[in-house]
Design a protein that fits this description.
Strand order of the largest sheet: 1-2-3-4-5-6-7-10
Order of helices and strands: EHEHEHEHEHEHHEEEHEH
Low-confidence stretches: none
CATH topology: TIM Barrel
Distance between the termini: 10 Å
CATH class: Alpha Beta
Helix content: 25-40%
Strand content: 5-15%
Number of helices: 9
């Protein structure tokens, strides 16, 4: 099992990774709450030059599924730009949230927008790194909250080689049973490329995306360990930083 951590310090990601004693790191290449164009600084250069593998998480503002042109069009551009930077620093792949449409809009149109993203990028040779779509915790009109919605999305984008990132907190909060989540997702997508292994501060089906450390949330830690084992993919912790070392130790002890 390869264990990684999401690092917050873009200026010194290697230092933070060293503190947690992890095999790989996940990071943003730009401010996740803004539309800023990504730039490779010293911290990202250091990651590229190191032996530590890296995964890029795309900005939170991105919503490829949106029917609003002012969100969808810059989202498409941002995915391509951030994927280019991800390739520049040698990233294994880039995680992108499934996104959503608004109340009253047809989710099928959001799925169609995801397909258009891959179709248009394919015309110019595809994305610079694999795109791993992540399941999300809330929203009745989300593209990737419930597994049946993920199945509809995969019917549209699976042929383009889209990857999948399973977030345990999101699945739990989204109302999906974790006991057989790996089996069900693999039946839909044929793959799990990364696991965001997070406990949840909130109850099952809460639709709240609030991560907890592995042994301190609402999800049985042994169930999380079972998901990690069954997935057969690298594990990325996005848990609170003050308990991250204990989370890594918990997994290594297994």
């Amino acid at each position: 099992m390869r264990i990684g951590a999401h690092v917050r310090d873009s200026e010194n990601p290697l230092g933070e990774a060293g503190e947690f004693d992890v095999d790989l790191v996940q990071l943003f290449v730009t401010d996740p709450q803004k539309w800023n164009k990504p730039v490779v600084g010293e911290g990202l250069d250091a990651i590229h030059a190191s032996d530590v593998d890296v995964v890029v998480h795309s900005s939170y503002v991105i919503n490829v599924a949106s029917l609003n042109n002012r969100i969808r069009i810059p989202s498409r551009k941002a995915v391509a730009q951030q994927a280019d930077v991800a390739a520049e620093i040698g990233a294994l792949g880039m995680v992108v949230h499934g996104g959503h449409v608004r109340d009253g809009e047809d989710p099928a149109e959001g799925v169609a927008n995801w397909r258009k993203l891959f179709e248009r990028q394919a015309e110019s040779g595809g994305f610079a790194v694999p795109i791993w779509i992540e399941n999300t915790a809330g929203g009745d009109f989300a593209m990737a909250r419930h597994f049946d919605a993920i199945a509809r999305l995969w019917d549209a984008v699976g042929e383009f080689g889209a990857g999948f990132c399973l977030d345990t907190c999101h699945a739990w909060a989204g109302g999906e049973d974790l006991v057989d989540a790996v089996e069900r997702i693999k039946a839909i997508t044929g793959r799990i490329d990364l696991v965001h292994l997070n406990n949840s501060r909130d109850e099952f089906d809460s639709a709240r995306d609030r991560h907890a450390n592995l042994e301190s949330g609402e999800i049985d830690p042994q169930l999380l360990a079972a998901v990690a084992s069954a997935a057969g993919a690298p594990i990325m912790l996005e848990t609170p930083a003050d308990g991250m070392k204990a989370d890594v130790a918990f997994l290594r002890a297994l």
